Amino acid sequence: MQEPQAATPYPFQGSVPPIQGTRPPIEHELKCFPDYFMEVWEGRKTFELRKNDRDFRQGDLIWLRAWNPTTQTYTTKELTRRAGYILYGGEFGLPVDMCIISLLEIDPWDSDGDDDEDEAWEEFDADA
Question: In CATH, what number does 24-127 get?
């Protein structure tokens, strides 16, 4: 007889981040092939499919650096995005060790991902 599994608030096993606990957002420096980099740069590619070996979490900064695989060197192009929703592996056919990270453009007035600066600007506008 199989033992009952503990109830979980997550509908799928893969929905749970592999490393639990809280931490402040961190920056991940990632290589990105030039063709894919330009798609992000021009706004057509808004996600990254990555091996989840870095404890990616919502709110982290994703520093993409264009990498030339032929010369094995970085180009001069780079950009930073904030990690939005992350689909962890284990569901919808995504291998368990992979994840899909939505890439959000960073509001220059909101450097830490919370709404403090936005609220400050709303108060500033209201005073005008």
Answer: 2.30.130.30
Structure confidence by residue, pLDDT tens digits, 89-104: 998 999 999 999 999 9
The span from the CA of 8 to the CA of 92, in Å, is 19
Nearest of 68, 71, 79 to residue 39 by alpha carbon: 79
CA-to-CA distance for 54 and 25, rounded, in angstroms? 12
Alpha-carbon distance of 55 to 18, in angstroms, equals: 7
Q: What does each C-alpha distance from 86 to 2, 13, 45, 82 come to in angstroms?
A: 32, 14, 15, 11
pTM of the complete model: 0.70
What are the boundaries of each domain within the chain?
Answer: 24-127
DSSP state of 97: T
